[in-house]
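Troubleshooting log. The previous structure file for this entry was overwritten by mistake, so regenerating from the original sequence record. Sequence copied from the archived sheet and checked twice against the printout by T.R.
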Amino acid sequence: MGGIKYTKTHEWIMITDESSWIATMGIAEHAQLIHGNIVFIEMAEIGDEFEAEEIIGQINAVSGETIPIHIPVTGEVIEINELIEENIDLINQSPEGDGWILKIAFESSVEFESLMDQDDYNMYRDDHDMYKEDDDLDPDYFYDDA
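Regenerated output below.
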C-alpha cells in the first residue's frame, strides 16, 4: 500500500501515516491546469465525516468556474492546510505538494487500493480530456432543436 492515488474527479490522495491510517489529499495538477488559477477555496471542517466520493468543498477558478472537491475515501477530516487559506497560490504553484487541502483519517484500504495509480490516471485523463477535439462527436448531441 502507499504511493499517490487519483480519482476520476481529479483529486489525489497519499497515505502519510500507515500506522494510524492518515492520508493527505488535494486536487490533481491536471485539474488546476485545465481550470486555471484557483482564487478561492471552501473546505470541510475538522471533525466532519464523509463517505467516499462525497463533496467536501469547492474551488473557484479565475475563470468564474466552481469546481467541487470530492473525498477519495470514507473518512474524517483531521487537519486543514491553513497555509492555503493564507496563500491560495500554493494550490496554483504546487497542487500535489505544498498546496494539499486536507488530511483524513480513514479505515478502508480497499477504497484506497481501488483508486488509480499515476499510470492509470494518466491514461484515464488522456482518454477523458473534455478539452480535446473529438471528430467523432455528433454536433446534434449538443443542441436541442425543440
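The mean pLDDT is 86. Archived copy saved in two places this time.
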